[in-house]
Design brief:
This protein is of the alpha/beta class and 236 residues long. A five-stranded parallel beta sheet has the order 4-1-5-6-7, sandwiched between helices. The chain has a two-stranded antiparallel ribbon with strand order 2-3. β5, α8 and β6 form a beta-alpha-beta unit. The longest helix has 17 residues. It is globular and about 55 Å long.
């Protein structure tokens, strides 16, 4: 069996500025003043690390960062959930994503789940709001709520999926599909082949230079994607 690990933001869906609204709202609630700067867009960094950076760049006292970061992270899924209607109204599915998810899910030898910089609650809210959860085994995923170090999430997903499907998933049977340099790094360091999608903020040549095994423009050709997943395993 092949474990297929989908990234979420800018690979499967895009929710615009909603995450940044959540950062801004929670910073003001927890810290007590407005944030002047927000995390960079489209980096793929896990949410706990982005929250720590948010606190640092807004001159929060170093000795308070861990305490405040923990409080903000704990509140993030509920705060995002309060924007459910905004996600439905403003969010969009990336080109070809729904059909690609369905094509992967149809393969009995593929186990489709996620490895994401989102917390598990946040990931589920986004995917369900846009109707993309039905082709994913979210219980097998690796989330930023498991570990803020993104490459470690590959092994989290491998172990969870392995237990659910009675299969020992390794770097030879795991493929990541994502749009950012963090997705490439996650696969290279965490133990997975990488199919990069140039649908985010990182251009194709940078994804290639970072070590992605394949780079595609988008997800509109499901047959091509299936062939590349198979090829990643055959050419290991």
């Amino acid at each position: 069996m092949i474990l297929v690990l989908w990234d979420i933001d800018r690979t499967l869906l895009y929710t615009g500025d909603i995450d940044r609204r959540v950062y801004r709202e929670l910073f003001e609630e927890v810290v007590g003043r407005r944030a002047e700067r927000l995390p960079a867009r489209g980096t793929g960094v896990t949410m706990p690390l982005a929250v720590r950076e948010l606190l640092r760049v807004n001159s929060v006292e170093p000795e308070r960062i861990e305490e405040l970061a923990y409080e903000i992270v704990q509140r993030m899924p509920d705060q995002l959930g309060s924007h459910h209607e905004d996600i439905v109204r403003e969010g969009k599915t990336m080109p070809g994503a729904a059909a690609a998810l369905a094509a992967v899910d149809r393969r009995p030898d593929f186990v489709p789940t996620v490895v994401t910089g989102n917390l598990q609650g946040s990931a589920e809210i986004k995917l369900r709001a846009l109707g993309l959860d039905k082709h994913l085994d979210l219980a097998s995923g690796g989330y930023a709520s498991d570990n803020s170090h993104r490459p470690a999430l590959v092994r989290v997903a491998q172990q969870r999926a392995g237990g659910r499907y009675d299969c020992d998933f390794t770097c030879e049977t795991t493929v990541i599909i994502g749009d950012s340099l963090e997705d490439v790094r996650t696969g290279r360091e965490g133990g997975a082949r990488v199919i990069a999608v140039a649908s985010g903020t990182t251009p194709r040549h940078e994804l290639t230079a970072a070590g992605a095994h394949h780079v595609i423009e988008d997800l509109t050709d499901s047959s091509q994607l299936i062939a590349l997943i198979e090829g990643c395993i055959v050419s290991r």
